[in-house]
Amino acid sequence: MTSPKLAAGLAALTERYDVLLCDVWGVIHNGREAFPVACEALARFRAGGGEVILISNAPRPNAGVIEQLDRLGVAREAWSLVVTSGDATRQLLAARAPGPAWKLGPERDDPLYEGLELDFSDLDQASFIACTGPFDDEAETPDDYRDRFRGAVARGLPMICANPDIVVQRGDRLIYCGGALAQLYEALDGQVLMAGKPHALIYDLALAQAAKLKDGPVQRTRVLCIGDGPRTDLRGANAQGLDALFIAAGIHGQEILAKGHLDVAMMDHVFETEGVTATWAMPELVW
């Protein structure tokens, strides 16, 4: 496996790419505060004529993510459009309406279901599970759902998971996401359907939006995916045949970074373990 090339900053890559598909959590904010240097780098890329599509595994439509970006102080100049796993997942949910579904996740994710005419029920009456994450991601773990999942798998219920992320960085903590629940469900022999990274639907949606911004087809060789998640960002880019820039300071920062320096051997070990590659790598996203 070839190690990624270490890039000093995004400025060194601007001649190669017209469109960035950039992850959100762990790259431009941590859920509590924006990363000003990363936001500046994206804004400068756009100022030079490039387009930045933020591609997030948030299980809500993009309006909720945009509201959060504004609240955290991410400048609008840093991005062109936002595409979320929630946007893509609505296609999967609409195909199974009216359900009924067992809605698994916090109330803040309810905008995912608006206008889909889905019915909801208790788990024992449901025909499928609609999962955005744990009910309480500050306290619960996937194991809290093991018994309920066993019963659902025995009944043959599929799960539609709107957030494939296993964990996400919130401040200085890692919290479980929908992907961790989906991982357990599959381990129990349950069927899981997902549309977010690394799955194709969200990339189809993002690239279609990029073509609209560019008023014509986008050359895939001119698209760069940016992210901190090997299982999601890099695996998705690899599956799509797109170049990828790995940001080490995200969910693997404690393993890969030492005093701000990137440990290439440890990074390669993580990539080999996950079976992914990246074209480029940086400790954090900078210009």
Describe the fold and architecture:
The chain is built from nine helices and 15 strands. The protein has 287 residues and is of the alpha/beta class. The mean pLDDT is 94. The longest helix has 15 residues, at 200-214. It has a seven-stranded parallel β-sheet with strand order 1-15-12-11-2-3-4. The chain has a four-stranded parallel β-sheet with strand order 5-6-7-10. A two-stranded antiparallel ribbon has the order 8-9. The chain has two domains: 5-86 and 201-282, Rossmann fold (3-Layer(aba) Sandwich); 90-194, HAD superfamily/HAD-like (Rossmann fold). The radius of gyration is 19 Å and the shape is globular. The chain has helices spanning 36-47, 62-72, 85-94, 146-154, 178-187, 200-214, 230-240, 253-256, 264-274; strands spanning 5-6, 19-22, 51-56, 81-84, 101-104, 128-131, 159-161, 167-170, 173-176, 192-194, 223-227, 243-247, 257-258, 261-262, 280-282. Strand 11, helix 7 (230-240) and strand 12 (243-247) form a beta-alpha-beta unit. Helices cover 32% and strands 19% of the residues.
How helix-rich are the residues, as a percent range? 25-40%
Mean pLDDT, all residues: 94
**Radius of gyration over C-alpha positions, nearest whole angstrom:** 19 Å
Globular, elongated, flat, extended or rod-shaped: what is the shape?
globular
Q: If classified by CATH, what would the architecture of the largest domain be?
A: 3-Layer(aba) Sandwich
Distinct helical segment count:
9
Q: CATH homologous superfamily of the largest domain - what is it?
A: HAD superfamily/HAD-like
Could you say how many structural domains there are in total?
Answer: 2
Distance between the amino and carboxyl termini:
27 Å
Find the CATH topology of the largest domain: Rossmann fold
Low-confidence stretches: none
Derived structural class: alpha/beta
Order of helices and strands: EEHEHEHEEHEEEHEHEHEHEEHE
Strand content: 15-25%
Largest sheet: 7 strands, parallel
Oligomer: single chain
Q: Largest sheet, order of strands side by side?
A: 1-15-12-11-2-3-4
CATH class bucket of the largest domain: Alpha Beta
Total strand count, please?
15
